[in-house]
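New to this. Help decode both lines:
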Amino acid sequence: MVAHSHLESGWKKTLEQYYSGTNQGADTANVEIIFTGSYLALMEDPKRRITYAEIKYFHMWYTRQDKTVQEGVKKLVSEGRIEFAGGGWTESDEASPNYEDLINNMLQGHQFLKKEFDVTPSVGWMLDSYGHSSTNARIFADLGFDALFIARHDKSEAVVRKPNKSYDFLWRPYEKHFGNEE
């Protein structure tokens, strides 16, 4: 099991309220505590790892740290103990995707990761999207992702896939752009 993040960038609270943990009546999330606690736990035990998905909050936390913590984070990234999946600024909104917005979202997160850590995510990571678009899968394929992991699916998929134990599948939204036909 690998610990991972999925952090709302705006749902019941503002971005800053989620980050700082204010407005507890709307939601109890406190992103700053999650990142600080994760960092301390990683520094305490070399067997621990974590995967971060959305980069906006990570960027907020990381840029507010002193140089010692930033260097510690860079070391953890270089050791593969902090990994990035997806790497968009936020999780893409697949409910009403706009091609340009999807690309810009990924570009902003990936540029920060490349500049700061010289890493590029290789796995798509969509844990909280209500439905999935072929457009987003196409963009992920064009980004060179090796895989796309999703957590939500249509109930009709579960009816078929659960009894057949076929939750792992190769999705080819645009075959000429997403793997070969073999």
